[in-house]
Design goal:
By secondary structure, the protein is α/β, with parallel strands linked by helices. The chain has 23 helices and 21 strands. It starts with a helix and ends in an 8-residue tail after the last helix.
């Protein structure tokens, strides 16, 4: 019986094109996952009869957009799907080490998945308990699965923190998650995941929304740990650029099905499926700047026209400036002792100009001060010093009543559309509220007509007017946020990481929309991002910030071709280049 099972695994490995050099560690056969939608028995097919294998000592990338089923597939392997709303087909099988995980008891599954299979989740702050130290949480894994006592667990935790590159582990072991940076939190999650030296490590979007330099560090760390511990890794992502940095094999998913699978070079150099080809072309390139970014549905439908014309970027001498910022500073203060206070300078002497109809990109790592610059210009933070000249007035020195007319002329798109839209308001209420406050339109009938026009302008159906934010995808919510800004007919739009957490296809749609709006209305953008590929595509000039200061500023093409500051060179060097093997 066991010989037959091993033979079946070998056949499956050969059929799916798995690495024949290694024995199969995990095999998923005919996995079907449904979610119950209501009490009437309606269901949604999240995963539709997929099959794949993961060889031993191999890194396999599972790629696709949000909603493709890749995270659901990994949660099915881990046994973490909510039983009350999940239906897994009786014909589905998940073999690990010759055992069907779906036939194990809950206790057996918990022991196996805690020790031999582990997982790094996408958002560390949602996965780490904020009321326990990181040392306690890593130690809990060791005590539970390895039977270590407190002293043994602490010694092993210190070694793990050092292995994953946490600075000063003897101090950090007693820190709480909130006292660590995003990159350090993710390293703690990795330390927890490898604590028991698992045979399979599942990394679910472990670098989403991280800075490009931190992203590179995390990917290199996972790759190094995989080689050191001879693990298999299932790396889940929507970024094909990252895949080329870490994976040996690639599985492409869409709408719950596997569209294509194969070794890395085959997928990158000779993709067979139109969806894979579209994914590869959606991300902005550092080598060219097309007039419009290709979108997946157009690519699949064959509606892509070859556009030889490229956009020309850069500032032109003599252009009228819409905004001039001089010596902007922003400090935050914390209490120190009974009567003292400690100053932290988040922004230090920042100056720049923004011409009408142009885009300045602001790049840097988390903590560099780029978001603080945007929020201070909007007076959501009070500037410590400096000036921001707009239409002959210094915005930062105006009284609140005098500043009110300028609010409608400078708007912001926040990073997280899930948090920036009121969940209790319909889309119509979200769009009408600012128009009522600023008395745009003669009455609600006129405002409603404008709202319908704006929804159509950002690519949403008029029926969206009566729906709530939770009924839309992330990309659609970001379009709603853009429509809300457009109700004010702003002259300056601050885009604060507005596409950082979006799939490459949705990201392309939003970037195209922003470009169309700039072409049509002559709007000026302050585009804040850590994604240098996106900034290269959309920005005319790039301002590089490090520790609150501007370390380099130049036209987009010039900065990317000839960076002068070591920090800029480090940022550009950390951009995923795809296949480099």
């Amino acid at each position: 019986m066991m010989q037959k099972m091993n033979a079946d695994l070998d056949i499956a490995a050969t059929t799916d094109g798995a690495d024949r050099r290694g024995e199969t560690l995990l095999e998923v056969r005919n996995l079907r996952v449904q979610f119950r939608l209501d009490k009437k028995g309606n269901t949604f097919d999240a995963v539709k009869a997929i099959s794949f294998v993961i060889p031993r000592n191999c890194t396999v990338a599972l790629v696709g957009e949000s909603g493709s089923g890749k995270s659901v597939s990994s949660l099915a392997v881990m046994g973490l799907l909510p039983a009350e709303v999940t239906l897994i087909d009786a014909q589905s099988e998940i073999f690990f080490g010759g055992r069907n995980l779906l036939e194990l008891s809950m206790a057996e599954r918990r022991q196996l998945c805690g020790k031999d299979i582990s997982m790094i989740f996408q958002e560390p702050m949602s996965s780490l308990n904020p009321v326990f130290t990181v040392g306690f949480q890593i130690g809990e894994v060791l005590r539970q699965h390895m039977g270590m006592d407190g002293q043994q667990a602490r010694a092993r935790t210190l070694a793990l923190l050092e292995e994953v590159g946490i600075p000063d582990p003897a101090t950090r072991i007693d820190s709480y998650p909130s006292q660590l940076s995003g990159g350090q939190q993710q390293r703690v999650m990795i330390a927890m995941a490898i604590a028991c030296e698992p045979k399979l490590l599942i990394a679910d979007e472990p670098t989403t929304a991280l800075d490009v330099t931190i992203q590179k560090q995390i990917v290199e760390l996972i790759a190094a740990l995989q080689k050191k511990h001879h693990m298999s890794v299932l790396f889940i992502t929507h970024d094909l650029g990252l895949v080329g940095e870490i994976a040996e094999r690639v599985i492409v998913m869409r709408h719950g099905t596997i569209r294509e699978s194969g070794d890395l070079r085959q997928i990158f150099d000779h993709p067979q499926d139109s969806y894979t080809q579209a994914l590869l072309h959606c991300r902005p390139s550092l080598d060219a700047r097309p007039w419009r970014l290709p979108v997946i549905d157009d690519h699949i439908a064959g509606r892509i026209e070859v556009q030889l014309k490229e956009r020309v970027r850069g500032y032109v001498a003599g252009e009228p400036n819409v905004l001039e910022v001089k010596n902007l500073c922003k400090s935050f203060y914390t209490r120190e002792g009974w009567f003292g206070r400690k100053e932290f300078q988040a922004v230090k002497d920042v100056s720049f100009v923004l011409p009408r109809g142009k885009t300045i990109g602001v790049v840097g790592e988390s903590g560099s001060g780029k978001t603080t610059v945007g929020l201070t210009l909007l007076r959501l933070h009070q500037a410590t010093c400096g000036q921001a000249w707009f239409d002959g007035r210094d915005l930062l020195s105006l009284k609140a009543a005098d500043y009110l007319p300028y609010k409608r002329r400078i708007q912001i798109i926040f990073q997280n559309p899930y948090a920036s839209l009121n969940p209790r308001f319909t889309v119509g209420q979200i769009l009408l509220e600012p128009m009522r406050i600023h008395k745009i339109g003669a009455d609600d009938r006129e405002r409603t007509a404008l709202a319908y026009q704006l929804l159509e302008r950002v690519g949403l159906p008029t029926q969206a007017f009566h729906r709530y934010p939770h009924e839309f995808s992330g990309g659609q919510r970001q379009r709603i946020a853009i429509a809300r800004c457009l109700t004010m007919k702003p002259e300056i739009l601050v885009c604060d990481e507005s596409v950082s957490a979006l799939d490459v296809s949705v990201q392309a749609q939003v970037l195209n929309l922003l470009q169309d709006l700039q072409d049509e209305f002559g709007m000026s953008y302050i585009f804040i991002s850590h994604d240098l590929s996106v900034v290269k595509y959309i920005a005319d000039q790039v301002m590089v910030m490090h520790q609150g200061r501007v370390v380099e500023m130049a036209d987009s093409d010039e900065l990317y071709r000839h960076p002068s500051h070591p920090y800029t060179k480090a940022l550009l060097g950390a951009i995923p280049k795809g296949v480099h093997r």
